[in-house]
C-alpha cells in the first residue's frame, strides 16, 4: 500500500508496552499500565495490520445492533469487546482522541480548547476539556488548567508524579502530547467503539460502491462515503541517511488510520479489502482476491450458481 509505493514516508507514534482496562463510575476506560515502559515506532511499518485491526473493531460495532451510540456504551461493558480494544492498544498504542478533536494547540498555555462543532467551532475551558481524559485521578481532577502552567500541572501531569518520562520530548511533540502520553491519561472504550464504527461504515460504503453496478445503490454508498471528513494532516520534510522523507506529523493514531484508509481506497493496487461474502476487512495476498478465505469464496460461488439456475 503506502510503504511499498512510497518508501520515503515516515509517521512516528508512541505506545506503552502494556495497558489495562479500568471500571470507573460504571463506565470502562483504557490506560497505560503504571509500570510499563514505552517505545516509538513508524506507523507505516504496520499500516495494513493497523487498518485491518481497527476496521474489525468497527465491524463488530456495526453488527452489534444499530448505529445508535448508546449501543457502544452497552458493548463497552462486555469482555469480548474490551479484549478486542485492549489487544489493539497493546499492539499500536492509545488512539489520541484528546488531540484528534482539538483545533487549537497548547491548550494548557492558552487556557481554552477549540473543537469543531456541527456547524461552528465550539470553545470550552481547558479544564472542561482535559479532565474527562483523566478519569479516576483525584489529584488531576482538582487542578486548574484555565490560567496557564502552575506547579500542580508540572507535578501531576508533566512531572515525576505522572511518570511518562521524557517520551513527549523524545517524540518531538508539544505540551498537548505530554497529556496524551501521560500514564494517567484515559480513553473511554465506548468512544473508541463509536469512532471505529464510523470508519468501518466509510470503508464499507466505498467498497460496496466499487462492487455494485446499480446506479441508485452507488448514489447511496457515495452519500455515506462523502461523510468522510478527516482532520487536517500536517507533514514536513525530514532528511536522514542521504534520503528525503515525507514526515507525517499525526495529531493522533486515529488520524493516521484515516490517512491510511484514504490511501488504501484510492490505490489501484489496494491490499486491504472487504470480503464480498462476510464483509470482513482483510489483507489480500493476491491483489485479485475478493474473499478473505477459501470458505467464503466457495459459499459465494454456491449462492451465485443457485441464482443463475433460478
Structural notes for this entry:
The protein is an alpha+beta fold and 310 residues long. The chain has one domain. Helix content is 45%, strand content 18%. The protein has 15 helices and twelve strands. A three-stranded mixed sheet has the order 1-10-9, with no helix packed on it. Strand 3 (19-24) and strand 4 form a beta hairpin. Helix 2 crosses helix 12, helix 3 packs across helix 12 (189-211) and helix 12 (189-211) runs antiparallel to helix 13. The longest helix has 23 residues, at 189-211.
Strand order of the largest sheet: 1-10-9
The number of distinct helices, counting runs of at least 4 residues, comes to 15
Overall structural class, as computed from helix and strand content, comes to alpha+beta
Rg calc = 21 Å
Helix content: 40-55%
Say what oligomer this is.
single chain
Helices and strands, in N-to-C order? HEEEEEHHHHHEEHHHHHEHHEEHEEH
What is the total tally of β strands? Answer: 12
For the residues shown, what is the average pLDDT? 85
| Outline type | globular
Q: CA-to-CA gap between the ends?
A: 40 Å
Percentage of residues in DSSP E strands:
15-25%
Q: Main β-sheet, in a few words? A: 3 strands, mixed
**Can you tell me the number of structural domains?**
1
Give start-end ranges of low-pLDDT stretches: 161-165
